[in-house]
Amino acid sequence: MEEISLANHKSAIKRHKQSLKARDRNRMVKTRVKNAIKAVRLAVTGKNAEVAEKALLDASSVLDKAATKKVIHWKKAARNISRLTLAVNSLKSA
């Protein structure tokens, strides 16, 4: 989908193109984060500890990468990892 740019100067047109590419990249990363978190939550609700642990490893990796790329804030990534870890650990103790 091509958007109409309101920019008139050459540098502004270039910057608009760059922002569209960055937006697409960020959307892909955010979708990957959401899916990784959802996989852990599904495994926890399904009471499957092994699958939950593997999904947690994948999710923490995806969250850390998103934080490194500054797509999400590093504290949000840490908070999500912490909460997911608590959920997975509750399966082990139960």
The run of helices and strands is HHH
Counted beta strands: 0
Mean pLDDT across all residues, rounded? Answer: 94
- What is the overall shape? elongated
Structural class: mainly alpha
* Low-confidence region ranges: none
Helix percent band = over 70%
Largest sheet: none
> Roughly what fraction of the amino acids lie in strands?
under 5%
Q: How far apart, in Å, are the first and last alpha carbons?
A: 49 Å
Task: Please give the radius of gyration in angstroms.
Answer: 18 Å
Please count the helical segments.
Answer: 3
Keywords for this structure?
mainly alpha, 81% helix
Concise description?
The protein has 94 residues and is mainly alpha-helical. The protein has helices at residues 10-45, 49-68, 74-93.
Tell me what the structure shows:
By secondary structure, this protein is mainly alpha-helical. It has a domain at 38-94. The chain has three helices and no strands. The protein has helices at 10-45, 49-68, 74-93. It starts with 9 loop residues before the first helix and ends with a helix.
Topology, please?
Layout lengths: L9 H36 L3 H20 L5 H20 L1
Helix pairs in contact: 1-2, 1-3, 2-3
